[in-house]
């Protein structure tokens, strides 16, 4: 039993939501593709459709529903987060960053389509995702102020104070012994900001009241960090084959929650963050078995 949903209900929920997300992503690609020069379309398609848990859009949709939203167009909005996530992985795997050959059990995008196409396709996804979020919010009939708010959320989470800023800290931290406050700051930005924005965007699209948004925000911040701690534990305890990716943090000389605290203590911290996230949600007046189950899934996943 994963708190919130039984294991089989969670499996069914994730399978169903992933399918809906894949459909919305295929439609996003179909809209973006014709505006992209033909030679870059292969890299674009590879980066966006090569699998993955689709966690960010699923969190966004679950937050939307928890906040009372019911428009089916939420999937279109939610995949703007996955478009940013996809670009970040494509660029992260490039030789000038982590230089990875393997992602999601398959060769990385630049290994298949080359560095030039991967760089271009990734760059195209950034404004592509922003525009996509704006258009999706319009199609949902959301007021102009809400559309702008959603685009600001996505852009802020992706930018210098968020994911890109965190990636810069990550690159600068290679070979350094980072301590807990620095590691928290790095990961709140690099991984946490987009996960947190996933929750906030779902809430904003549903017109959640301020205390509900605060609950989603605190839940998002807590599970964002828990996600990273779980990632570090997996990185230290599972093989590249099991994880479907390389190189490991140790190969790259990165400080991790495991190098700082050890596997057991890191796992305990992740568990505490999950509980804090679920409590924050309830304090915000939101009841969601799906979000509760997702919080547990984030730290119990095997990939
Ligand atoms: C130009 C400095 C600069 C940055 C560009 C490359 C980049 C932007 C950002 C990298 C951000 C990054 C790689 C964050 C890691 C997040 C993370 C833990 C990814 C794994 O997420 P999962 O497990 O992946 O959700 P799946 O495969 O399931 O989609």
Structural description of this entry:
By secondary structure, the protein is mostly helical. It has a single domain (7-300), classed as Farnesyl Diphosphate Synthase (Orthogonal Bundle). Helix content is 73%, strand content 1%. It has a two-stranded antiparallel ribbon with strand order 1-2. A hairpin with a 2-residue loop joins strand 1 (102-103) and strand 2 (106-107). The model has no long low-confidence stretch (mean pLDDT 96). The structure holds geranylgeranyl diphosphate (GRG). Residues 52-53, 55, 88-89, 91-92, 97, 104, 163-164, 167-168, 190-191, 231 line the site of geranylgeranyl diphosphate (GRG).
């Amino acid at each position: 039993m994963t708190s919130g949903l039984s294991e089989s209900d969670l499996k069914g929920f994730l399978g169903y939501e992933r399918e809906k997300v894949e459909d919305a992503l295929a439609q996003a690609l179909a809209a973006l593709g014709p505006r992209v020069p033909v030679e870059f379309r292969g890299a674009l398609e590879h980066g966006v459709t090569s699998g993955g848990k689709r966690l960010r859009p699923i969190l966004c949709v679950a937050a939307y529903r928890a906040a009372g939203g019911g428009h089916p167009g939420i999937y279109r909005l939610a995949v703007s987060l996955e478009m940013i996530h996809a670009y970040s992985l494509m660029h992260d795997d490039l030789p000038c960053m982590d230089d990875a050959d393997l992602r999601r059990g398959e060769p990385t995008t630049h290994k298949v389509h080359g560095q030039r196409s991967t760089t271009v396709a990734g760059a195209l996804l950034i404004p592509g995702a922003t525009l996509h979020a704006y258009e999706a919010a319009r199609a949902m009939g959301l007021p102009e102020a809400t559309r702008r708010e959603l685009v600001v959320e996505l852009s802020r989470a992706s930018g210098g104070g968020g994911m890109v800023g965190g990636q810069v800290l990550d690159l600068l931290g290679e070979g350094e012994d980072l301590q807990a406050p620095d590691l928290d700051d790095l990961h709140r930005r690099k991984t946490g900001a987009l996960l947190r924005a996933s929750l906030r965007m779902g809430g904003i699209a549903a017109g959640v009241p301020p205390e509900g948004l605060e609950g989603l925000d605190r839940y998002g911040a807590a599970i964002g960090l828990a996600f990273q701690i779980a990632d570090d534990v997996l990185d230290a305890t599972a093989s590249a084959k099991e994880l479907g990716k390389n190189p490991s943090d140790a190969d790259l000389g990165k400080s991790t929650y495991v190098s700082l605290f050890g596997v057991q203590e890191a796992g305990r911290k992740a568990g505490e963050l999950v509980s804090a996230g679920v409590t924050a949600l309830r304090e915000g007046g939101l009841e969601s078995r799906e979000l509760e189950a997702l919080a547990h899934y984030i730290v119990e996943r095997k990939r």
